[in-house]
Amino acid sequence: MSNRWLIVIGGIVAVLIIAGVVVALSRSGKTTFFPEDTPEGVVQRYLQALEKEDHSLAYSYLSADAKDRKPFQEFRRELSFRSEKMEQRQVVLEKSGVFDSTAEVFVSITEFRPSGPLTFQASEYSFSASFFLQKENGKWLITDSTWPVFFPRPIKPPPPPAPAQ
Fold it and tell me: Checking DSSP bridges between strand 139-145 and strand 89-99, what pairing results, if any?
């Protein structure tokens, strides 16, 4: 009976090793670099700056309006609450669209989380995020994003009711 347990454990270890190699090979693909004067290129460089924890450079890719809504200290503080590192993620362009002086860039993000030995939990999680950009002084800049930092717009109260006549 102990031989069966050794075979089962050996099989599980082999499957984990093969899965690790497959994940490593799939993550080591070539990165496509988009031109820096395109919305896709701006989003790519913004995320690369976040990966390198160069918050000043990442912040430079934001529009004046986004900076008004999210001052630098608040931007850095929000990023510091993120427990996972950016390099534990893979970001893939899903689609993008340019409309005169505005653009939308949609990406798919896969987070890789290490799982312990002999645990059968998913080690990755995928979700979508969107970035909205506008041209300012001939440069594409991010005005809004759904990840990793949010730039909430102030809520405007409804207009007062018209006086009864």
Answer: unpaired
Bridge partners for 97 per DSSP:
104
Q: Which has the closest alpha carbon to 120: 6, 5, 16, 1?
A: 16
pLDDT digits (tens, 9 = 90+) for 41-73: 999 999 999 989 899 999 999 999 999 999 999
Q: Which strands sit side by side in the sheet containing 102-112, from one edge to the other?
A: 89-99, 102-112, 124-136, 139-145
Helix boundaries (H) for the chain: 2-27, 39-51, 55-59, 64-69, 72-80
| Domains defined along the chain, listed by start | 38-115+123-152 (3.10.450.50)
d(CA 16, CA 123): 11
Is residue 104 within 8 A of residue 132, CB to CB? The reply is: yes
pTM of the predicted model as reported, rounded to 2 decimal places: 0.71
Look at the block and give the residue holding tokens 């970035």: 131
